[in-house]
Amino acid sequence: ALLPCGLDIAATFNLARYHDAMRAAGRHELVLRPPLPSRDGNRPRRNYLAVVVGNSRGMWLRMLDLYAARAAAAGGRVEDVVPEHPVDEYALGAVRGALKAAGVRDGDIGPAGLPRLDDVEIVMAPGGAGAAAYDAGTGAPAFEAAAHEATGEPEGKGIAAHVYDVNDVRPGRLWAATMLSDLVNLGARDEDAYLSVHPTFGPWYAMRALVVFDGPLSSEDEARLALPRREVPDTPERRRSLREAKEAALAEPGAPERWIKMRELLSENHPERYGPYQLRYHYKKDLAIFHEAVRRRMEGLSCS
Asked: Concatenated DSSP letters for 189-255?
């Protein structure tokens, strides 16, 4: 349910690693509240299996396909089927739908306004099937496999999980996407750009959700599933350009082109750069742009 929906980036890790790193950095506000009691009902454990999920630009057209299909079923009324936060609802719906398909129970009510897993619609891109969560070539497991890793039981059925939305800023649910991405080797964090750089997608990707299972991750499995560390080459000239671009962006925070320039400097002429519609919506969050992209998808026109 995830890979066909364009959620094509993930890493599996022990949540204690993230918590230890945040405490060491003095960022206690980024430590998650104990998400779940242990499976035997005792006090929360320290070791939880966690999977962080994100997407490259590949999610954009799959998402438009879904909203275009819903608009077509609604007589072509795009505004009637696109929610206020279409990207967040699509991504979170796909994550929670995949967990439900994998037999995972809901550990909490989730981010504000989202239904429990028992009630969630399984969001599927046209032609999508299964419940996979992995970054091609990294070996991060499907949710079914993650549930099995956390329980040691066949298929891991009945395990519970919490879903932490990357945009949820409530105390105890706020987490640092770029710092976590760097910690688990999904992408190298750039301190000047406030972004991380993926070895395949460059800076053109986004984290969407952190899924914490009610079960531990053994040190052996953590070592087996760990991603290799891949540093991003740098030069003094690019570092100087990035700092100049950051100053310009901070001086004019409402100008998307300033922030886009900083992203481009991290990896110039990158083949995974977002398309024009995706880029405009990413930085402006203007629903009119999203509506236009859905209509163009319905008409078979360029909308990337």
From this structure: EETTTTEEEBTTTBT--EEEEEEEESS---HHHHHHHPPPP-PPP--HHHHHHHHHHHHHHHHSTT-
pTM over 0.85? The answer is: no
Helix-, strand-, coil-residue percentages of the chain, each rounded to 5: 40, 10, 45
Q: Which residue has the tokens 């760097």?
A: 182
DSSP class of 115: P
Report the candidate in 243, 274, 244 with the shortest Cα–Cα distance to residue 260. Answer: 274
* Bridge partners for 262 per DSSP: none
Q: Which helix (H) or strand (E) holds 141?
A: none
In degrees, rounded to 5, the angle at the alpha carbon of residue 299 between the alpha carbons of residues 293 and 304 is 35
Report pLDDT digits (tens) over 232-278: 778 899 899 999 999 999 999 889 999 999 999 998 899 999 999 99
Which residues 6+ apart lie within 8 Å of 127 measured at CB? 4
> What are the b/e assignments for 69-89, b being 16+ CB within 10 Å?
bebeeeeeebeebbeeebbbb
Cβ 56 vs Cβ 205: under 8 Å: yes
The end-to-end CA distance of the chain, in Å, is 22
Q: Strand 49-55 to strand 206-213: parallel, antiparallel, or no bridges (unpaired)?
A: antiparallel
Give how far the C-alpha of residue 181 lies from the chain's centroid of Cα atoms, to the nearest Å: 10
How far, in Å, CA of 302 to CA of 304, rounded?
6
Q: How far apart are CA 152 and CA 235, in angstroms?
A: 47
Residue 247 C-alpha from the chain's centroid = 28
Which amino acid is it at 235?
T
